[in-house]
Design brief:
With 137 residues, this protein is mainly alpha-helical. It contains 6 helices and no strands. It has helices at residues 2-19, 25-32, 38-60, 80-96, 103-108, 114-131. The chain starts with a helix and ends in a 6-residue tail after the last helix.
Amino acid sequence: MNVLKYLLVGFVFGIVLTKSEAVSWYRIYEMFQFQSFHMYGIIAVAILTGVIGIQIIKRNKLKDVKGQPIEIQDKEKGSSRYLIGGLFFGLGWALVGSCPGPIFILIGAGFWSVLLVLFGALLGTFIYGVLKDKLPH
């Protein structure tokens, strides 16, 4: 029964992403061609929602579902790791036409070719896990 609430949130998230056209490769193409504000607007709303949520958690000292205080660590200084990581993420997003969030939504909608994208994402995650101790963090 505990898993049901996570499945419900996942379904709602999938519906919202689908209805907002955030899973559309054409909308992503428009974004990377700077032809439309649509995706930038969605991203801006997501950032704003995250900032407000983090501030509510920090100011009210909220606790997680187990009653433990939620501690949000400050980011380490340094911009090169964020620039390099963002570059890889953006290139993958532009080449594939999907960021990691909608992969499962697209598979659920019957776009079976996205299984290759899922495989690539899992392979990339595995490779990072193998190499992470050797990478400069």
